[in-house]
Amino acid sequence: MNCKSSLEDWRMGRVIADKVIDDLKRRKLVTKEKSIWYSLKKGPEFVAKRKTLATDVTREHLKSGDWKDLEFKDYNYGAQGQPIAIGYSQPLLEVREAIQNIFLEMGFSEMPTNMYVESSFWNFDALFQPQQHPARDSHDTFFLKAPATTTQLPDDYLEKVKQVHQSGGHGSKGYGYDWKRDEAEKNLLRTHTTAVSTRMLYKLAQEKTFAPKRYYSIDRVFRNEAVDRTHLAEFHQIEGLICDYGLTLGDLIGVLEDFFSRLGMSKLRFKPAYNPYTEPSMEIFSYHDGLKKWVEIGNSGMFRPEMLLPMGLPEGVNVIAWGLSLERPTMILYGIDNIRDLFGPKVDFNLIKSSPICRLGL
Ligand code: FB9
């Protein structure tokens, strides 16, 4: 079959065998081209001049009276309303409010945490944290260049703190090192809101008659730490403390069970831990059904007598306290994997807009 006759066939619209086409293609005499054709024809609604459907009865329509022969567009009851420009609360503030309400329901009052800059004295020394403790060097702590030091430390109390560090007292032998005032006067960005707890307990000790107290704080703390998926150089610390006669470790465990059950965490485990300012100390773990694992949810302990007695708190008064972060529960509750998506310059606003109301304890 020669190509002239087959092309003729094609022109006449006769079917050409595939084999022939393949042959012609192999000899590059023809190429296959796909073309799509549409035929347009009038639809049922076709009109020469489209009538615009009115969507509103306007003043002009009423005045001109032409509203009588207007055709109105059907109501689209499914139409979304204009998005209302409302504010959105940062997930962190949502969870902060929920946890604040738990503290208030449990009879706690908030400590004033509006001072990010603190002296080493209230942040470390008053907590019986020795001056050569690793957390006190610039690898872990942001020290201030200006004002580099503070001048407002209560001298008599400072003397007592010096004594207890150098030679102990109240049954403690202290650390036996040469305590330096200028080290305590160094200003820093507070590394924990426990610095505020110290100030509040000292103030409480100055009152004529001792009254039991329940305090809480939720605010920013700063640590010169390596930034990673769950850690930034600053985070929000949540802290609770109860100050009263004869408080025991059992009371601490009891109040932790109560507090965390209101956060929806019931199965708790406690692991002995160490903090310079509490003895005994415990890390707190909770079994998280969603994550199917035990999660470390905080730290806790009983403030040492070497911290409380120099303040002037009466013998027999104990202080139980615990702490956790605000970012960790918020990340888990909102399913946020990287802390930088939750806090800081890289937060994606749509996450804030799309984040549902925080429901704790469910
Ligand atoms: O928040 C932490 N974990 C956490 C808390 C809640 C949570 O909720 C989920 C919804 C279910 C999940 C996780 N942590 C404390 C534990 C860890 O994340 C830990 O690795 C990191 N910690 C921070 C400090 O990091 C350097 C969290 C932060 C922390 C640790 C200790 C304290 C406060 C914050 C404290 C304290 C304390 C101890 C004794 C007396 C007074 C205060």
Content-based structural category: alpha+beta
Taking the alpha carbons of the first and last residues, their distance comes to: 82 Å
- Small-molecule components bound: ligand FB9
**Uncertain spans:** none
Shape: elongated
Output mean pLDDT.
90
Q: How many distinct beta strands? A: 9
Approximately what portion of the residues adopt beta-strand conformation?
Answer: 15-25%
Task: Output the CATH class name of the largest domain.
Answer: Alpha Beta
Enzyme class: ligase
GO molecular function, one term: metal ion binding
Protein name: phenylalanine--tRNA ligase
Main location: cytoplasm
Could you describe the 3D structure shown?
The chain has 362 residues and is α+β, with helices and mostly antiparallel strands. The chain folds into two domains: 1-70, no CATH class; 93-354, Bira Bifunctional Protein, Domain 2 (BirA Bifunctional Protein, domain 2, 2-Layer Sandwich). It has twelve helices and nine strands. The chain has helices at 3-11, 18-26, 59-64, 91-105, 120-123, 155-167, 181-184, 194-206, 249-261, 305-308, 327-334, 349-354, and strands at 109-110, 117-119, 187-189, 213-222, 234-245, 268-275, 278-288, 293-303, 317-325. Strands 1-4-5-9-8-7-6 form a seven-stranded mixed beta sheet, with helices on both faces. It has a two-stranded antiparallel ribbon with strand order 2-3. The radius of gyration is 37 Å and the shape is elongated. The model has no long low-confidence stretch (mean pLDDT 90).
